[in-house]
Amino acid sequence: MSNFAATKAELFDFLRARPPLIIIDSQERGRAERLLYEIAAESAQEILYYTDAAQVKKLGGSLATVSADSDPTTFALEHYKTHRKTVFVIGDAKRISEENYLTQEILSLVFVAQASENTKLKISCVR
Description:
It contains 4 helices and 6 strands, in the order H-E-H-E-E-E-H-E-H-E. The protein has helices at about 5-15, 30-40, 70-80, 100-115; strands spanning about 20-25, 45-50, 55-60, 65, 85-90, 120-125. The model has no long low-confidence stretch (mean pLDDT about 80).
């Protein structure tokens, strides 16, 4: 089994377990994105993917883009109120390890995700 296939299987197992937060630290953001696209296409898992450039895309489906008004945490909170078992991915999460407003918002989102059986996933590019 290739490293990509093994990582994909491991990530899929994590997503099925529904932890409230998953962090992917990678030098290759594209590979992490490809993992998510493949998991979404092969399963019924709802994965919403946020980037500053593309806003929110639903992976595995129509790939329609939805505007989050550049505020991914508020968008995710609203979505979590009406949806269960959703994975919300923030692809542009720079400086997440620093003490700042975004970090505090994401931590609040993790508690909401846990209470509503959702998962928050963050892709962090290590350089």
